[in-house]
Structures are given as C-alpha cells and as structure tokens.
Amino acid sequence: MNYQIAEQRVFNPGHAACPGCHVALAMRFVLNTLGPDTIAVVPPSCIAIIAGPQPLSSMRIPVYQTTLEASAASAAGIKRALVAKGNHHTNVVAIAGDGGTYDIGFQALSSAAERNEDIIYVCLDNEGYMNTGSQKSSATPSRAYTTSTPSGKPTPKKNVAEIMAAHNIPYMATATTGYPDDLARKVARARDMKGGLRFIVVLTPCLDGWGIADDDGPKTSRLAVESGIFPLYEVENGNRYTLNHGPEGAPLAGYLARQQRYGHLSPADVEFLQAEVDRNWERLQAKFGSATGAAIKGG
Amino acid sequence: MSAQRMLLSGNHAVSHAVRLARPSVIPVYPITPQTPILEQITEFLAKGEMAAEVMTMESEHSAMAAAITASLTGARVFTATASQGLLLMHEMLHWAAGARAPIVMANVNRTVGSPWGFWPDQTDSLAQRDVGWIQYYCENGQESHDTVLQAFRVAEQVLLPAMVIHEAFYVSHAMEAIRLVSQDQVDRYLPPFNPPHRLDPERPESIGNTVLQGMFQRHRRDMGQAMDGVLEIAARADRELAQLTGRGYGVVERYRCEGADFVIATMGSMAGTAREAVDELRREGASVGLLKVKLFRPFPVQGIRDALSGVPKVMVLDRNFAPGTGGVLFQELKAALYGARRAPEVHGYLAGVGGTSISPAAIKAMVDCALAEEPSACSVWKG
Ligand SMILES: Cc1ncc(C[n+]2csc(CCOP(=O)(O)OP(=O)(O)O)c2C)c(N)n1
Ligand code: SF4
Ligand SMILES: [Mg+2]
User: Fold this and answer.
1) Class for domain B252-382, per CATH?
2) Could you identify the atom of ligand 1 that is nearest to the CA of residue A129?
3) Are B61 and B88 in contact (CB under 8 A)?
4) Is the pTM of this model over 0.90?
5) What is the pLDDT at residue B338?
C-alpha cells in the first residue's frame, strides 16, 4: 500500500487514541481531505476523546462537541447560520460513532437527510459503543461478543448504508481505513459535490472492542472487504450504484478468526455467518446490475 | 413611525415581535397551543415580510440542538414550544445555557401528561427552573409582545438563553388589541447580534470539549455571575423599552400595594384575574395588593423582600403542581423571605392547576379563607 495524503495538518498527532486505532486513522484521512475551511461536530464517542479535552485539540478547526443524539441537527444548525450570514463555502461535517448514528442519533440524521441539509455526515463505525466499554450497538454484527451481549449478538447488523441511500440523498458511500485512497477520494467527492446531505460510513476496526493486535487494523479492514462482509460502494441520488471493492473470495472464517469478539463461535456459527454474508452480497449485487447508471468499478 | 394597533391573539403578538427582532435562523416543530406562533412566522417569511432560514425539524430535541449551534455560529435564533415539546428539549435546554447560546424561545404553558391535556398550567416551564435559562412569565399578549424584544436584548448581553412564557388559550388564543413596537424602534433597541466567540474557521475555537473539575466549576460560576447580572440588565431593558413605547412592567410589579396588609402573589394570566379581585376588595375597603412576579429566573429575591417585608399576610396562587412539594412559586417565595426582617405569613394555594378557571370571586373567597386561617407549611388545594 503506498498511500499519499496531502497532510494539511487539520488533524494532528499527540491525541489520546489507543495506539493503532483506526478511528483516529479515519479522522486523519477525513479531516485532512476536507481541509481547514471546515467546522466539525462531534458527539460523545472515541472521536470526542481523540478530538481532545479543553483547552487542547487535535483538530485545527472549530470543533463543536454536541450531545450523543444531536449530531445531524447540530451540524445543520451551523450550516444554516453560515448561509444566513452569506458564507456558502465552509464545509460542515459531523463525525460520529455508530452508536451516535445507527441508534440514538438516527432520528435527527434521517430528518437532516429528508431535509437534504447541506452537510457531510461521516460515521466511524467500530461496531459498538466503545467509549463506554464495548457494548452492543445496532451496528454490531451477528454473533459478535460485546459486554452487553456476552453470548454473542442474536440479531444482524443494521444496514445503515441502504437505509441512508433510500433517503435519496445526493451521495452515500461505504469506506474503510484499509483502503485509504478510496476513503480519501470519497471524502473529496463529498466535499466537492456541495449541496445536500452526503453520508459516508467508514468501517474502523477497534483494537480493544474487537480483540485484535495493535498492528492488525489494516489487515482486518481489508479482509472485511475481501470476505464480502463490508463491500465498498457508492450510491448517488439513491439509485446510481457503483461498486468500488467487492468480495474477492476470501473466506469469512479468516476475518472472524483474527478477532477475539468471535472467539466463542462454533463451526456452525461460522457457517451461519458465511451464509448471511453471501445472502447480503447477492442482494446488493443485484442493485449494481439494475441501477439506472452503469455498474462501474470505480477506483 | 407611529405605533400600529392590531387585533391579535397572544401567540400572534409574539410572532410579530419575532418578525421585528429579525432573527436569521428559526427551527420549528408544531405543538398545540404553540403552533400559531410558528405558523404566523412562516407566513411572514412566505410573504417576504421577514428573511430567515427556517428549519422544519423532526422533533423539539433537534429544534433546540439546531438552535444552539446556529446561535453559536453568530445567528440570532428564535423558536417556540410547549408542554411535551419543552420536556423533550430538557437535555438541550441545559446545553444551550452551558454553551452560552442566547436563544429566545416562547413557551406556551400547557399541562404535561400523562394523562393528555391541553390546558393552561405552568408546570412545564417551572420544571425547567434549574436549566440556566432566563424565564419571563407574561400576563397578556401585549406583555408577551414587548417581552420577546426585551428577552433578545437581555439574552444577547449576558449570553444566556431566555424563555418568554404565557399560558395556553387564556393568553395564547385570546384576542386583544395589541400595540406593535415599530420596526424603527426595534432596530434602535436591538443592535445586530455580534457575539465575542463563535464557530468560525477564520478563528478556530472548540466549544463543549471535556473539562476537568476546576474548569467546570469556573464555568458554572461564570454562568451564575451572568445570571445574577440579569436582574439589573432586565430592569434596564424594561425601562429602555418603556422609554420608546410608554409600556413598562418591571421585573416584579407591585399593584396597589400601598399600605396593604394582605398581598396576593402570582405569575402569568392569574395576575390579571387577581388584579380585578384586588380592585373589588379595595372598593370594599380592604387594603389588599398584588405582587406579580414577571421575571422568575433569576428569581428577584430582593425585589420580593422589598415588596413583602412588613406585610402581615401573603397568599401565593400557584397554577402548577410539583407532587411532594406543592406549588413552585410558594416554595420559592418562602425561601426568598426566609430570614428577612418582618417577613410575612405565607399561605400557599394551588389554584387553577390543570387549567380550571379561577374567577375574581374565587380569589376573593381565597383571601377570606387566608385571613381566617393559620398558614399551612404545605400548599393547599383550592380549585
Ligand atoms: C444521552 C446519552 N446517553 C448515553 C451517553 C453515554 N455514552 C457516551 S459515548 C457512548 C457510546 C458511543 O458509541 P459510538 O457512537 O459507537 O462511539 P464509539 O465510542 O464507539 O466511538 C455512550 C452510550 C451519552 N453521552 N448521552
Ligand atoms: S477503544 Fe477502539 S475506537 Fe476507541 S480509541 Fe481505542 S481502539 Fe480506538
Ligand atoms: Mg462505536
């Protein structure tokens, strides 16, 4: 991997993330791509810890820390005030965890999408409430251990990507830190598009919550894509689907085996999860075929 | 420009004041009996009589969340709510005050469920007494109109949010001839909002990040100091508007209290009814007065002590109910008087809770009752 990012130093080192954290890595790609003419909204999450305690900040832009359920409404309020004052150029981005997005913040997000607010919303999805010690969220996948689902989560991960695409917003994309070029390109696209709600959900391995080694985030992230559990794609206006990186035949078992949160799985569980992944992929694949636009494998 | 006179409901009197104040962001969410305030505002916008970003939110919680950030970005912000909507905002009400966002919000007092009701009762806003908002209680539409303008002026000086409150139907829907403050007068009274700190990429500053204990305490002390300053600033804002319009209210109003040996204390529309009862009693030769508490947060302790010290008996009428402690004004007023020299005996009556109608005759009967009885430590139900 030879990733080059124009380091604008919007996001800076010296923050309090666990060494090897992919939430911090995603923040670096997202913020440095958005650039300094940006205001960020951050709800309680590991992102807020990484943003820093007063009077320190890892982000050299205005950061507004809001309540857990209010990110989208807070970001929209900033944007509308800027517009009222004649500023049409500043990016307003909400960067929230999966709990703050899929669960408690979903009502505000869905409404902001329905109103097509001119904001960028980035969900850094580490598949659980990590800041409070790794509890289940509705982004936690089937069978995964969390402290609130000690025998494994009985229900599947909520498909927030499809739900957001169904709001017919101008741009929805999935991304992950193991594909930094793809992630940065998507952020740049969202930034340059302007107008309307642009949503990116980024799978961000959490070392502690997933039970992976400090240096295993990149490989885990890539296997999520290669095994098909988290395909990378974009949807414009709710109907133009583009696949960027789909499954490459890697068995799901390999992805699961590197994570302690799946340590309790039986071979039957693994088979069950593989079937779930296959089913989801089949359903998604059909959308690339039947979309209004051509199914291009974008770079 | 001469003052325009219009037949308006209390709610529409608020809407006109908002139009004159020129807010630039207005998040909206409907709830009876507040809805006409925001409907009238969106109509002004549609007709081009005002210009603002209107945000049609999915909940009051989000309406307040957006109001806060818009204010912190430097916009003048107004919204309105009632009852369940105000309660849903509770977390964000604290947040707005802590973030020092000088939003002005109208709240129309309505019963809080369960069970459902739509009736005038001040429990909704009194339950928000500790959130750090300035609270004004208005007696009629004219007062609500004038108070919205005062609220913007005060809130933006101290950087604390302010609630302008009137009751369901008795005030919100009652039609009155309202004298509008002229645009010219309002523009002189309310300079453009220009806060010292704001969310601005040209001057990157963070708001709301985690702080340590000492910093948190300093922050609360700063808020307390700002709130304490409101008493004087609100009194001045009232006088300054009175200079323009000829109408002033004071932060507390003493009505016919000269030489009174009995004073009725209350808030909101009940003050109007009590005023009539006082007039009748005075005609009958009784020396009875009225103390109307207009500014409830900050609580005008000194003004209340000045008004009531030396009066033998005070009767507090509460159109609100806090189970376990009774009437909220009764508690607050007694606390303000505790330790004051020549403090009065205080009777606390729950009157009109749930929106029941209280007539001047009913208030006169309560006065008789209070004159005959020893005061109880707890609020007493009266109807
Ligand atoms: C209303 C409210 N309820 C609960 C909390 C406690 N809380 C803080 S962070 C958090 C978890 C957030 O999880 P997520 O959004 O996935 O972010 P992560 O910590 O995983 O980065 C919770 C539940 C809160 N701050 N506010
Ligand atoms: S707990 Fe997980 S998401 Fe949070 S800082 Fe550590 S590695 Fe990152
Ligand atoms: Mg999470």
Assistant:
1) alpha beta
2) 13
3) yes
4) yes
5) 97
